[in-house]
Amino acid sequence: MAQPGAIGLAQARPNAGAGAAIAIAAGALLLAAISGAAGAPDDAALPARVTFPSADGRTTLTGYVYEPSNKGGGRVPAVVMMHGRAGAYSTAANGRYDATTLSQRHQMWGRFWAAQGYVAILVDGFGPRGYPQGFPRFSYKDRPAELDEVTVRPLDAYGALAYLRTRSDVAADRIGLQGWSNGGSAALATMASDAPGLAGHEPAVFSAALVFYPGCGLHDRFDAGFKPYAPVRVFQGSADEEVSPRRCKRLVDRSRAQGGDIALTLYPGATHDFDDPRRARQGDAANVAAKADAMARAGRFFAEQIGGRVQP
Prior knowledge:
about 300 residues, alpha/beta, Rossmann fold, 8 helices, about 30% helix, globular
């Protein structure tokens, strides 16, 4: 399988005969391995709720921390996770916004990173600002400025980074960033060399980023170019019904032309939210295969960039 970093645009083909069957089987095994990620977690699996300041200097954020079951000695790498426009919680939360009502996708990824030996924190940047349920599809132009993914949400990411650096179990120079949809857009903006909140974190900035189906318009902020300060990998479906894969390809191509370490893996036939473990998305074979491949690539990428335990 081609590595996205080698060619810039990796055309993953999840519907190609036997390859599709293998990928679908791998996806099923992966889901089974992540302790019931498609359902409600039991008490032992619930992440710890923490609070910490955003780098905006005025917002107290909520975070949900997933920890490895056996950290052993020393410090471990960590991952900051940024939710999309629907917020951190399930659509069935029904007014209860806590660790028990996190969306299935966030539960799945938090457990996935913990199983790989990382501390992972999901940042709720919408709830503390009065929008715990997020926003509906195609509401981009109606969202309040205090949730802007280019000027504000990067400050939340750097707030989470600062929080993780205070923990005695986290390796301060081995922290990765992951974002989905609007949170993926925020992750891209966070990795810019002039990102809001970046000043004061050097040299312990984010070591790498994983970006899933972002909107790459980014309020035209990077039309002149985008060069991330650390490696970035983007994953998107060709049948994405919410954002434009072509626009993301243009962003990635321009960035690579300027020397950026960034690559896009495009999954033919996969939709927006292709990694969502719910039946509504995983009933599509293209999504099942894309999800399995993207999770495998994500695991390898972070293992290469930030993996490994640091001795005391």
